[in-house]
## 1
Amino acid sequence: MNHSLKIYCAGPIRGDLRHVESYYQIVALVWQLGHTPLTELALSETEAAKASDKDIFLRDLQWLQQADALVAEVSGPSLGVGYEIAYALHALTIPVLCVRKHSSNELSAMITGNFSRQLTIKEYLSGQELDQIVKEFLKDLESDR
Amino acid sequence: MNHSLKIYCAGPIRGDLRHVESYYQIVALVWQLGHTPLTELALSETEAAKASDKDIFLRDLQWLQQADALVAEVSGPSLGVGYEIAYALHALTIPVLCVRKHSSNELSAMITGNFSRQLTIKEYLSGQELDQIVKEFLKDLESDR
């Protein structure tokens, strides 16, 4: 496949882990569709374990700088995910998809009220719907190339 | 007082409210020291209630653009607070103080591993210590003017 995109996948790793399965699902789907997910989950456990907080910060910023787009699971609150969304929109101006489980916590107005043209926010009810949303976003990205 | 600084105060308003008292304390202290806290808490209830999410997003971004610095309570996870920290550091490059209650949740590596020269991270044990940290940060800001 020669339409391979680099997709930074953001989701809570520390903190609120109630929606971590959806995050795993996003990463797996990006991979299955022939794209490259940029995420700590793609590292070996040894690699991930030996990274200091500074290593993680630098690596995540560099991954974001290489990424064609960011997909973020935002059903739970997270300082890191909020940070990455703002960095992607304001410093890099790359497309951002925020996906959120229907009936999860009330979302920050910095996301729901954000009228950046680069930002798409979608709610999902099921894993199947989540797959569909991510697939469409990636398809649109490919056709915009 | 003619050293009045505009300080954007960030803290969880939706979501995890366990540390909201510390946020109130920061806002009150900034005010008592003769500076201007930029925060929804300074608005009347009617003004705050009638703002749509788009109004909030735009208002908060404009406040950040006017601010001399950002003080953020980061003891709990929050997409909005993470967003504001990244915007302040990367889009505005203004000084940011993150304060965090000792023994609160593990903090994101996007904060703890962040080696931006504009970022200061401090832990507090008591309300008195929190006051001291914020006072020193504001004093340093004034002497840098």
## 2
Amino acid sequence: MEDKNYFVAISGSLRKGSFNTMTLKAAQSLAPPNIIIDHLPIAEVPLYNQDLYTEVFPEAVERLVDAIKAAKAVIFVSPEYNFSIPGVLKNAIDFISRSPKKPLNMKAVGIMGASPGALGTARAQYHLRQVIGCLNAYVMNKPEVMISQVSTKFDQAGNLTDEKTAGLIRTFLESLAIFSKKLG
Amino acid sequence: MEDKNYFVAISGSLRKGSFNTMTLKAAQSLAPPNIIIDHLPIAEVPLYNQDLYTEVFPEAVERLVDAIKAAKAVIFVSPEYNFSIPGVLKNAIDFISRSPKKPLNMKAVGIMGASPGALGTARAQYHLRQVIGCLNAYVMNKPEVMISQVSTKFDQAGNLTDEKTAGLIRTFLESLAIFSKKLG
Amino acid sequence: MEDKNYFVAISGSLRKGSFNTMTLKAAQSLAPPNIIIDHLPIAEVPLYNQDLYTEVFPEAVERLVDAIKAAKAVIFVSPEYNFSIPGVLKNAIDFISRSPKKPLNMKAVGIMGASPGALGTARAQYHLRQVIGCLNAYVMNKPEVMISQVSTKFDQAGNLTDEKTAGLIRTFLESLAIFSKKLG
Amino acid sequence: MEDKNYFVAISGSLRKGSFNTMTLKAAQSLAPPNIIIDHLPIAEVPLYNQDLYTEVFPEAVERLVDAIKAAKAVIFVSPEYNFSIPGVLKNAIDFISRSPKKPLNMKAVGIMGASPGALGTARAQYHLRQVIGCLNAYVMNKPEVMISQVSTKFDQAGNLTDEKTAGLIRTFLESLAIFSKKLG
């Protein structure tokens, strides 16, 4: 019997019509039967302030921590804001990183991103790789998923219509399952 | 009559006892008479969500935008979280960047940071430099202010006691005044 | 009478058919009458070894140093090798940086790059920006010239045929002339 | 019977009295009996030029390629030049990367560095991490070995005298042996 791979995924954008959240949902649909991807929301994670959250963490953060801890791999699907990681995503990671449960330690991580421009969030992804290394997780090297000109690749209903991108996401998911086994 | 230099400064930490906020206050005290530094708070800046803030920005953001627009230079004094810019600071910058007033355009920027470890926020500073370049502001190259082992450099009352660091901050402020004139 | 702007340009590739050297030559052709661009070769710069070159520098290096010192602005046109600056270009910069004449100090710098892929040397450019900052030169923020799918933009004779790229290079050169005046 | 771990190490400096080469030699001495570290020289690697080396590679490069291919892990011990990787080291990596044998693919990599200043080559190390990721090798996250104020940590004969640094290097080597098993 085949192993089930439980992955969790976080979108770096809070807006409803986000192309990155659409990309995350596309990955859920494209995943082979042995990979299940849970979408973890970060909208409820408050701004981190060490004065307020030394002992007790907000429930939204604890849920994130426990889900990441239980997962075989974590996927970040994020836009790029101002040549780097969106503040809202970085804030969620900062908060998670304070948990004594160290949920990201030795975890396999995959990064995807979509942008309206040509670079497909490349700058944000390399900053995020440095951040993830700090938490002693490992980001899979290849394939990189940098979706450029994203508005041409989804239809009005939010479905991914670009076959090349769909194939890339499938390869990404299968590679992440293999990579997470190596680290596990 | 000497020119007055109106600078604004933002701390990347929200906690009350922050060494970076102490460093910001030390800079205010150490500034020569022709440099005035206003401390701009970011604690009230909400998490950025394009669905909520397309037309009207929160008052806390508008105040930041207008103060930066009016300033000759902007100083960021920030801790490093997870090898990069704190999410709370990046979120504030992301929000400011959405303003049609483009307050950071062609602005002179200085970066300082203090950390308990050896690197003095170096990693966060180089990420921040990339972000500031995106907004078409220019970060002064030298001197770099990376305060390591910060807890040994302030007394219990929060006063900077390390003379070498004090001298560095004075040089930083005078250099920033010169640099801002070049760009202006 | 109009000011003449004397710029120098360095290609990060040594091979004869290099698209980046072609881009450099295209910039020479596209430059307005008040901008002259000298192409500085780096093929003769040996591998840097502090044991061999403490006092006397190779003539090829001294020529680079003096030409850069005399220029109003320096343009780097470079490929990306392995997600970063080509070793040959970095080696030339390392060598130049050892000169007591400090030719890059407070110099205006512009960066262009061309690649067969989608990112147009973005990763190399952000590393190069960090390096240039170390030497206390300032890299112009905008426009960024990242030429992707470069083989489709030149003809067999090595002439730039893509009008959009040509326009971008013209804007880049005019902006660099203005930027160099600010710093000067 | 215990496994033997065959590691190779490359110094990023060519000069004889290099503190980074001394650090490499210290690692050879400090290695436990089950770890053997071969020092691979890069002084003979010529400047990369695609016109000259398309089919046949210089022997110095082929020796590097084969030794890396045979090793369980690769250690880079490098100074920082101008806030980044030395050109001579980057050039050697660029050359190696052109080999169809892809010697670094899925290889475990460790990075160490020593500098006279406070940052201990941090900036060069993060650039090098990005480069290594391009070649589909994985850099061990922890421990990071960033040796600051290096001249105070070796004696005149080139022996490492700082016990804390010696302990860190021992931990680094043992961790790299474990990490290379995971990837292998």
